[in-house]
Every structure is written in structure tokens, then in C-alpha cells.
Amino acid sequence: MHKTVLQAKDLGFAYPQRRLFHGLTFELPAGLSLIRGGDGSGKTTLLRLLAGDLPSDGGALWLKGVSLSEQPVAYRSKVFRVGHQVIGLDQVTPEAYLAELFARHPDFDPAGLPALIDGLGLEPHWQKAMYMLSTGSKRKVWLAAAFCAGATLTLLDDPFAALDQPSIRFVLGLLQGAATDSDRAWVLADYQAPTGLSLAAVVDLPD
Questions:
Q1: How far is the C-alpha of 95 from the C-alpha of 163, rounded, in Å?
Q2: Element housing 100 (H / E)
């Protein structure tokens, strides 16, 4: 059995018009886990809470014993989140973006980048400013970053959105490898489990 990486206890969160979570408690082990729910169930919000990007209105989070409330900088340094938007990167090239991540994440593995660039078809776009890239190509850049960041907790929101079929197959292969990770947690947020992937845990959110 894989070791516990993330512990969430009594998480709560509400928007002015709707409460999403109250007393949400779960553990995520090493390997690949799924946060599952339909549109509006709060999948993206929960990922933001787990990343420490959005404050909860109750509860606590620990990442390998590091408390988000007591050691926020240390906690966030162990997390990498791929979402639908990254602000402030329009003028940055993918190469410069990855170089900045390398400086920020001590476990970043640049040796893995060439295979990711090739597998995701990013070579033609590597020197372009991000504003010149399609939505799918931007997501490929963020996925490449996620798979070489070396983060203790990697959060992937709707990871196959806007990807072409060859890239989807490539990412599925990467996730198959992530499912066997014995030290780090990889978390997908989607409405269903991708076919053929072994999941260590599933968190179901009510619609």
C-alpha cells in the first residue's frame, strides 16, 4: 500500500451564492488519484484549495506532515498545479517559463524535458511568446512543466482538454507511470476516470 501524501480534514468553502464543501475529509496516497464530479461540482475549486491558492473557510491540509496553515511557503513549494489559466505569461516563451520553474522547484528534472517536448509536439513553439500559442499548445507547456517539476503533489485540472489525440495518448502514458509512483501524489480532476489507468484513490464530489 502506498504511503499517505496529502491529508485533508474538515475542508469548507462557499461562494456567495452556493456552498461547495463542508467537512470534506480525505487522504490521498502516493500514485494517481481522481477527483471526480460534474460541471459545477467544485473540482477546480478543490484543486485550488489543495494547492494553497485559495483559502478555505474551515479545515486543515497537510502535505507529508507539512501544514498549509503553519508552514504555507514550505507547503506551496511542494505543489505544482495545472489549471485552465496562468496569468502574466503572455510575453514569456515556453523555454523561459521552464527555466524559471527550474530555479523555483529544487526537484525539477530538466533531463526529462527533451522527451516531453518531443512527445507533446512542442518543438515548433519553444521559442514563441506564449500569447502566440493556441490553447492546446499552452496546456502542453504546462503539462510538460508538471511532469518534470518533481513536486510532491501535482494537480492536473481536466488534463486532456484542448489536446490532440497523439498528445492525449502520450499524456496517458505519462499518467500510467505516475500511477506507479511510490513517493509522490498525482491528482486528476475530471468527470470520469480515464480508461486503463490504475487509481490509488477517488474523491467523489456531489453535483
A1: 20
A2: helix 94-104
**Residue 57 CB neighbour total at 10 angstroms:** 12
> Do the beta carbons of residue 35 and residue 205 sit within 8 Å?
yes
Query: How many domains is the chain partitioned into structurally?
Result: 1
Residue 101: pLDDT band with limits 50, 70, 90: confident
Burial of 129: CB neighbours in 10 Å, binned 0-12, 13-18, 19+: middle
Specify if 61 maps to a domain. Answer: no
The CATH number given to whatever domain includes residue 122 is: 3.40.50.300
pLDDT in tens, 3-30: 999 999 999 999 998 999 999 999 999 9
| Local structure of 128: helix, strand or coil | coil
Three-state SS for 4-41 is EEEEEEEEEEEECCEEEEEEEEEEEECEEEEEECCCCC
Examine residue 6 and state whether it is found in any structural domain, yes or no: no
In tens, the pLDDT along 36-49 reads: 999 999 999 999 99
Reduce the DSSP state of residue 184 to 3 states and report it: coil
Please check whether residue 115 lies inside any domain of the structure.
yes
Domain interval for residue 139: 30-45+78-204
- Give the residue with greater pLDDT, 198 vs 17: 198
Q: Does residue 8 belong to any structural domain of this protein?
A: no
- Categorize the per-residue pLDDT at 185 as very low, low, confident or very high, splitting at 50, 70 and 90: very high
